[in-house]
Amino acid sequence: MTIAEPVITIDDQPVPFRPGQTILEAALEAGVYIPHLCHHPDFAPHGSCKMCSVVVNGRPASACALRAAPGQEVEVDTPELHAFRRTLVQLLFVEGNHFCPGCEKSGSCQLQALGYEFEMMTPHFVHFFPNLGVDASHPDAMIDLSRCIQCELCVRASRDIDGKDLFALAGRGLNARLIVNSPSGKLGDTNFSVTDRAAHVCPVGAILIKRVGFAEPIGERLYDLEPISAEAARCVIEEP
Amino acid sequence: MTSADEVVASAVAKRGGDPSYLLQILRETQDVLDWISPETAGLVAERLRIPLTRVRSTVAFYSFLHAEPRGRYRLLFSDNITDQMLGSRELFAHMLARLKVEPGGLSADGLVSVGLTSCTGMCDQGPALLVNNRAVTRLTGRRVDEISDLAREGVPLDAWPADFFRVDDNIRRADALLGGSFEPGRTLRAAIARGRQGMLDEMKLSNLRGRGGAGFPTGMKWEGCRDAPGSERFVVCNADEGEPGTFKDRTLLQTYAARVFEGMAIAGFVAGAARGFLYMRGEYQFLLAPLQAKLGAMRRANLLGRDICGAEGFDFDIEIHLGAGAYVCGEESALIESLEGKPGRPRIRPPFPVTSGYLGMPTIVDNVETLCEATEVALRGGRAFAGEGTKRSTGTKILSVSGDCERPGLYEYPYGVRISQVLRDSGARDVAAVQISGPSGACLTPDEFERRIAFEDVPTAGAFMIFGAQRDLFEVARNFTHFFAHESCGFCTPCRVGTSLARDLMDKIAAGRGARYEINELMRLHRLMQRTSHCGLGQTAANSIADTWSKFRPAYERRLQRADFSPAVDLDAALSQAREISGRDDAEAHLGAEA
């Protein structure tokens, strides 16, 4: 007799999970897409972007932060949650300065891709237009704070993988900003390197590598070719 | 003159070079140096061997830590709605004019800064302000003049009239807790006599529930902490009383501190914790020295320390941590982050602090009042305690009553008291609304005044703000909206951006440029924040808007334009610069009345 694998249901579909997995991890592994932005499989759950907001047994929860448990009935694709996610993307758009047509990340940007995923036609809210500036002091990389969505992936990568602890968020509310660990606050005065994981983990165009701009033509990039939801599902299938 | 290096070195040494004391080290350093300069921040990072980003992010998070010079006298007016109702904004403007300072700015001589801050917990004796984190109460025009002059003349705070700093208890109605007799050590000996398990059994029997608002059964929490795996356990007393309109913990800590500390020791006794922390909001810094003295006296009397009251193995001691102006630190996991010296961003829960709290160890976080009530359980037993109040809300509750009434102050009642009773006792007449449990709570109107204060009816952490018929409830909600935008920690998207958008929408309506469109937007943001925010702050941030919109609609409607939408930009006002340059102000230089 085999012991039945524990399952949760996601939008009425049974999804198996291993003990310790979060709802999001279990879903992605099973090829069920739950939108997410600050989550990355290589890092501990973070739970700040709230794109993976779901309803579990009638109560709101973040799929990336809640462990899967038998008996959970998870709602993902409901009209209200869909509308929430679109609004969240809009909030991220108006708190920063995101001009996709002029951004080197266009086509590989997860924020942009989620905008398309949720049929966002306009940013809707009044823009805050923060005056944040660019840090181009490093010879090989630059930071455009206007595009930072505060997912802290670079913070986590630099701390947990690179062992350099070069980034942090500072400030409260809408004043929170990414800061750099050097007396000048400039990236050029740190030992940051383009071989760092932190250089490649940004889901948007806030941290960019210099001298590779537009090497891959716009129109032929990852999310130009297929929606982020399809891409996520395909990644699962391709994994050995 | 001591150098920054000496000041930092001594503050770091006092804390044994432990980075988890970063917030305390920064606070003490700033007390001497007036601000945390880039140089000072660098020295702190160096001496604690932590990244500079950690120092900077902590300084940037707390309102009372300054990365820019803010003068030798840092004056912050409490900006709660109750202060405003007592004329605080007029006094603020008066001081700005007298000292020739811009709001939030620094005087030309670099000596004084004057700004606003969230509720300082003096609603019963406001308007209030903080000068270098010391509370000044009962402001009048004359007092504001005196303060301005003392600051301008550079008179040290210790030489200011002591009456400025007088904080009254204002106990208007005492019941079992506030009115009970107290003899040092008696509740500890009672707990020891019951034994660790016996005391826990009494706690469970008492059905005492957390007084901070959530109402979790305290005995269950203590048991959960005791049974959770971990090499060490901690007891934290949450004295970060930041909910605007609440001030009961201030009095408990000023006059009933021994009970609070004994309650903490009893929690430690039951759960097997030897270390306790009192985390107190920075606004109550005036209580720090007397509380330290109280702890010293208790240690000398063997009411803290090793083998307390001669009970072998009952070891417990308490440290005090001060916050530095961050409302969100009242959330238990944010509080623990702050205790660890970090910005107070709420953690992912579960795991809850009871299994993974301070330094990842099992930790009890209880409200000040809850711990006081635990001493009552030790003394009288669980059954007697449960005999008061209602079946599901046992014991008494202390209410912080402020606003439009004759006798603001503390009122302790058995649970189940009706709102109308509290209004009668406090001398409130012609009441339009009562805001229960602060901006995150509920706004009740006269048809609800026969409801009862209890977990099963109207739950509350204690705030009870009364608004008379002359008050504008739209302005109340707008004040709360500004509060949340200021206090949002910025961690999660909905609250970080949503609270600021809500604030701007309310300001647009206040400016007479709002329409039905803005109301719809506010309700949409309310629903989003309620359902997707990371912690209670964002989840409740727009409650007051939804409440007042449904109950005080005319207050909104008289401000709304009849059109479905009106732009935020005032085209005629936008032309003012052009008029100034061209020196014109005739009718032709203005856009018509249709704008």
Write a structural description.
- The complex is a heterodimer of chains A (240) and B (595).
- With 240 residues, chain A is of the alpha+beta class.
- Chain A has helices at 23-29, 79-95, 110-117, 153-161, 222-225, 228-238; strands at residues 7-10, 13-16, 53-56, 59-62, 73-75, 134-135, 141-144, 167-170, 177-180, 207-209.
- Chain A has two domains: 7-77, Ubiquitin-like (UB roll), CATH 3.10.20.740; 84-228, Alpha-Beta Plaits.
- A five-stranded mixed sheet of chain A has the order 2-1-5-3-4, sandwiched between helices. In chain A, strands 6-7-10 form a three-stranded antiparallel sheet, with no helix packed on it.
- With 595 residues, chain B is of the alpha/beta class.
- Chain B has five domains: 4-61, no CATH class; 73-165, Glutaredoxin (3-Layer(aba) Sandwich); 172-386, Rossmann fold (3-Layer(aba) Sandwich), CATH 3.40.50.11540; 396-471, Roll (Ubiquitin-like (UB roll)), CATH 3.10.20.600; 474-557, NADH-ubiquinone oxidoreductase 51kDa subunit, iron-sulphur binding domain (de novo design (two linked rop proteins)), CATH 1.20.1440.
- In chain B, the strands form three sheets. A six-stranded mixed sheet of chain B has the order 5-11-10-14-12-13. A four-stranded mixed sheet of chain B has the order 2-1-3-4, with helices on one face. A four-stranded parallel sheet of chain B has the order 8-7-6-9, sandwiched between helices.
- In chain B, strand 12 (431-436) and strand 13 (442-444) form a beta hairpin.
